[in-house]
Amino acid sequence: MERWKHYKWLLTLGTALLGIGLSLYVYQMQLARERTETLAHWQRDANEQHLRAALLFSRAPPVLRAFAALFEVSDSVTRAEFRQYADRLLRQEPDIAAILWTPYVQPPQRAALEQQYRSLNAAPFGLFDVDPQEKRPVRAPLRPFYLPILFAYPETNVTQLLGLDVQGRPQNAALRMGLMQTGQMATTPVFPDILMPSGARSVAVYHAIRHQTDQGEQGDFMGFLIMLLTPETLLRTKFGSPAQSRFFVRLLDQDDDLRQLAINRPDEDLGRPVTALFRYPLAMPGRNWQMEIYSRAPLPVSRSSLLTLACMLLLSGLASFYVERGLARQIRLKARTLTLEAQRQELRRMAHVDSLTGLLNRRRLHDELVLRLAQAIPGRELALCMLDIDNFKQVNDIMGHACGDQLLIAIAQQLRPLIRPQDLLARLGGDEFVIVFPIRQAPDEILPVVHQILRLIPRVGQQITQGQVAISGSLGLSLSSPDNRDYGRLLHQADLAMYQAKKRGKNTYCLYQEGVDEQRTDEADPPTQAN
Where is each GGDEF domain found (predicted)? Predict the structure, then answer.
């Protein structure tokens, strides 16, 4: 009977899952079709907006070339000619923030040019720079040449900048020098525009003007025509309101690690996912931009899709109802099993770890050392170091067992950094520790570590007991050999050597050597009294 009950639940669960699977499949197919249709419609809208934006920025080169013709056909252009030409040319270009003319001026020409500025009641400092810290004009120092703003349109916005030496601005210096040689056109990275009271970020399109010879070849460098564009103002004017576009439109500079140049309106819903993203290249003179048109508007869901979703939820509820009782029992059993397994692992760990210090205990030391002794080969032996804390009983008697435990814990913590990954550190019990070092040739290679141990024990004891008990360490060393690879014998030899170190005044070490009073102090390196 129990088997039939089991089959019944499997059949019920299978039926519910099949209903959910079919509902999900139909629902996803409907959503995919609707998403495809919506994205295709949005793609057409995005293409239209890209063409509009590309048309806005593509007008910069033709306008600059038209201005360049004015200077190439005339040796001297007056301010009135520049203004009249700009009025006619820029009347249909309201998106251009400003046009500047910066002639090439050598030091001997500076005085005459400054006199010209004074006659216009402009540039009281003469040629000037802008202090980057205080944002105030300062007189331009002597330079090999100057590029001052002589003409500007529209004059109402930029009259106060007449006389500003563009060459004194370190930004884009390399770009200007290159254009002076080639006579070409290039766009700068985005920068805070000092011409705009709001400090809006702008870009400058530089066009180097050179004399034209009678043969049509380029002659000497005359100066720069500079067009200022504010991409953010353009985007917000043309694509700013949601009524004009459902999209966010932003410009990125591909030559500046995709730095954002502008966005048509604030994107205040950064937490919402992007549902549609379209990228288009946008070429500027000497620079590559990228236009991203994206939307965070949720894709529409039709009523039929919602009905499918309701069906899916209904089937899921039925399946959950039938599965819940069986799964609940399985989960409880699994949780109990995991708890028992965790307790078993913890008991296993506690059986091999000293509960006070967290070091290996006597049993784990025995297992590890026996295994290593069995694997030892001539030339690769083991050195067993037994450490006993001198005057530890006085700590317990005078300051209490809690202070003694604290001392053992502190010594264990200080010993850990001295132990290499291949070494073993264990506590036998009480105040006795054992350290096992693999050695290759002679025990001398572990003596630096032994000396460090002898120095740190008094230091730790001073910190814990505050000088009430003189704490030090006595160490006994024993070495394995092809004829001496017995765990108990090595431990006994290290114990004898340790007691010999205590007899020699404590705070030192002794190396066990059979036949010479059973122990001796290493003659190559006399016992060192720890500081």
Answer: 380-514
